[in-house]
Amino acid sequence: MTENTKERLLETAQRLFGQQGYDATSLRHIIAEAGVNLAAIHYHFGSKEELLDEIIQRSAGPVNEQRLALLDRAEAEAGGCPLSVEKVLHAFLWPMSTAADENPEFVRLMGRIHAEGMLHTIVQRHFQAVLARFVPAMRKAVPHLSPEEFLWRMHFMIGAMAHTMCGAPDFTRVTEAPGDFSRRIEFLIRFLSGGFHAPEGAGVEVKE
Amino acid sequence: MTENTKERLLETAQRLFGQQGYDATSLRHIIAEAGVNLAAIHYHFGSKEELLDEIIQRSAGPVNEQRLALLDRAEAEAGGCPLSVEKVLHAFLWPMSTAADENPEFVRLMGRIHAEGMLHTIVQRHFQAVLARFVPAMRKAVPHLSPEEFLWRMHFMIGAMAHTMCGAPDFTRVTEAPGDFSRRIEFLIRFLSGGFHAPEGAGVEVKE
DNA sequence: GTCTATACTGAGATAGAC
DNA sequence: GTCTATCTCAGTATAGAC
């Protein structure tokens, strides 16, 4: 039962990390639910952080491939022309919706990972290739923005996305039926579109 | 030296929480830098979480008062008319800029608190009163939005704000001189304004 | 190669002496 | 109010059974 142990650990850990967060989940809780020995984690993965790394690799891989595929197709359809903001956002965010339907815990985990910010090296390793494609694509969609304003808007996008993957608004109850993650993504794309299309520079009254 | 001990603990803990995060900062690290005994924390605060709670209360209090004062003044100037999105955002976000100049670690800590999401009860306790004023004010600024779309946009705003308080974009180095937090806030207000002003509903091509 | 048992260090928390 | 000693549980490491 060699593969069985490893697989059970991956599935259990992913679920618990997504539900409770990475720090809040102890290895002893994971092994208890998976029904394996504590040392099995260190045998198969080496450490708690490497366990997380393998979980991300397993699920983020397909999502990132789909992102790149959507971007490829959109760019092919556009010929050499720059894509619209909406198309870039769609290629980036839509695969999350697909993933959420079959794997909701993973999406919450991804949100946490981005938001917690601590495990910075892990994020960078798995999303570097995707960002390398999407940052230039988005840059071409809003060429009028200054480099600084553009980078900040990308930053805001990441923040909104991470928070949205983590959960729903909590000041009021919003229906959270299974499968309506796509709806959430549509709201997000509209909002971010508006943000990226906002006029640049000194248009805000900050008189104080 | 009773008050001295408590004060040193509060200041040291705030600095370390902001620099390293809440979970990553051990009580033993705090007491070592503050030069007090481990049990002093539990005597003065009761637990690590209550220590954090008191830190937030101390620094978030003035920020929230300033937020409410700015909102009061803006509403008084407007007579009975709804405020603009920009004015509401300004009243909500600008006090963070003031706080950042004299207390940068606190702002990073606030960002982490919002983003980590775990310490949910703490956030709710300290920001409930502020949200109770700002949610209706913003609602009046965008009355055409459906309730659902409105709540999601508030959610996106919180995410972008939390991520922005935590740090600067990291795919490229952005100048982070002291005192230019206000610049960051201006970028954020512009972006969020665009998001809130975005047209509602089925305007996104999600053909798949 | 795979898993079990056990021990080590450091975390937060608590009781009780002073 | 403060400090020492101690408790439980965390992540980690390793020796050895199968």
Describe the structure.
2 copies of one chain form a homodimer. With 208 residues, the first copy, chain A, is an all-alpha fold. Chain A has 2 domains: 1-46, Arc Repressor Mutant, subunit A, CATH 1.10.10.60; 48-197, Tetracycline Repressor, domain 2. The first copy, chain A, has 9 helices and no strands. The first copy, chain A, has helices at 2-20, 27-34, 38-44, 48-77, 85-102, 104-116, 120-141, 147-166, 181-197. In chain A, helix 1 crosses helix 4 (48-77) and helix 8 (147-166) runs antiparallel to helix 9 (181-197). The longest helix of chain A has 30 residues, at 48-77. Chain A is elongated and about 55 Å long. Mean pLDDT of chain A is 89; it is low at 203-208. The interface between A and B is large, with 61 and 62 residues. The structure holds a DNA duplex (18 and 18 nucleotides).
Which structural traits does this protein have?
Tetracycline Repressor, domain 2; 208 residues; 2 domains; homodimer; mainly alpha; elongated; Arc Repressor Mutant, subunit A; DNA-binding
Question: How confident overall, as mean pLDDT of chain A?
Answer: 89
Number of strands of chain A: 0
Q: Whole-Å distance between the termini of chain A?
A: 68 Å
| Rg value of chain A | 19 Å
Structural class of chain A: mainly alpha
Strand content of chain A: under 5%
Order of helices and strands of chain A: HHHHHHHHH
**What is the domain tally of chain A?**
2
This entry's quaternary arrangement is homodimer
